Amino acid sequence: MEWVLPDPFVIDIQVTQEAIDAYQHVNNSEYLRWAEQISWAHSEALGLSLERYRELDRAMVVQRHELDYLAPAFIDDKLQLATWIVACDGRFSLARRFQLKRVSDGRTLLNARTRFACVALTSGRPKRLPDEYQRIYGAAVVAE
Q: What is a GO molecular function of this protein (predicted)?
């Protein structure tokens, strides 16, 4: 697969009946669910699991989603979803990009971007990124 940015973190997705809506294609909410799924998988691959988030009393919460739906996906489609961390300010926020492609024809079905803000899990209040987040997420940033 060719991707818009180098060195993506990629997951494979097989479209099942549960993802299909009344129009007989993947419901738009599934794309968002898949973005959350790959975000966690990538964070865990980098060494920041939900358990580690809890230990540090921090969470990266969604501040803004931008999703551009370019083409539909259908039952039994094999897809690949890629993500990159494209910004980490070292203080309070980071941003991810996503690209979803259908394997059979290489067509991009979705381009998306999410901006996250750091908060304390115990209070929900904005907090600085822990040094560990700055180091790990900062090292993973890919230039756009």
A: fatty acyl-CoA hydrolase activity
Q: What averages of pLDDT result for each successive group of 10 residues across the chain (144 residues)? A: 96 98 96 97 97 96 97 98 97 97 98 98 96 95 96
Is there a domain that residue 67 lies in? yes
**How many structural domains compose the chain?**
1
Decide: pTM greater than 0.90.
yes
Q: Which long-range contacts (CB under 8 A, 24 or more apart) does 23-29 make?
A: 24/74, 24/75, 25/72, 25/73, 25/74, 26/72, 26/73, 26/74, 26/77, 28/67, 28/69
Which residues have CB under 8 Å from 123's CB, separation 6+? Answer: none
Q: Is residue 3 a part of any domain in this protein?
A: no
